[in-house]
Amino acid sequence: MNSPLFRIREIQPSDDPALGALIREVLQASGVPSMGTALEDASLDHMYDAYTSRGCRYWVVEGEGAIWGGGGFAPLAGAGPDTCELQKMYFRDAVRGQGLGKAILDKALQSAREMGYTYCYLETMPYMERALYLYKKLGFETLGTPMGNTGHTACQVWMQKKL
What integer is the mean pLDDT of 50-61? Predict the structure, then answer.
């Protein structure tokens, strides 16, 4: 889905500073702990390199000369080769509710399927209600325990979808 104001495209090297700032801004505004979450990920400052390696993809929402959100996937660390992890899917408040998150998630799930993944895993917080609603609507099921080795020990919701 591309609206007249926004377009979804693959990540570019020049996106790194804006994406890192956006993700930090959204997480901090959401009250996410600074430890045990994506706020500690070294990849926040090197998103292009992190998501252009084998088995990874990342898209950004661009419009009016700015980055408004993004999301992607990578192999789930510490899991088998059949499982990817939805990662770094965050949007500024101003663009939420416009279908951009669903559009990116649809792209990610289709691309992961084409790359040969069988499952997509994600971690989030229970108070990220809009995201949880979308994940459930698209067929993600809640798990009782975390999978893999993400390092995000503060996350309290774990979900998985068969692709």
Answer: 95
C-alpha span between 27 and 37 (Å, rounded) = 9
pTM of the model: 0.91
Pairwise CA distance, residues 124 & 32, whole Å: 10
DSSP 85-136: EEEEEEE-GGGTTSSHHHHHHHHHHHHHHHTT-SEEEEEE-TT-HHHHHHHH
Q: Sketch the domain layout of the chain as residue ranges.
A: 7-117
Phi, psi of 159 (to 5 degrees): -135, 155
Tokens 């009782």 locate to 144
pLDDT tens digits for range 100-140: 999 999 999 999 999 999 999 999 989 889 899 999 999 99
Fold classification of 7-117 (topology level): Aminopeptidase (3.40.630)
Q: Which two tokens stand for residue 20?
A: 């890192």
Residue type, 72: G
Q: Which two tokens stand for residue 83?
A: 């499982």
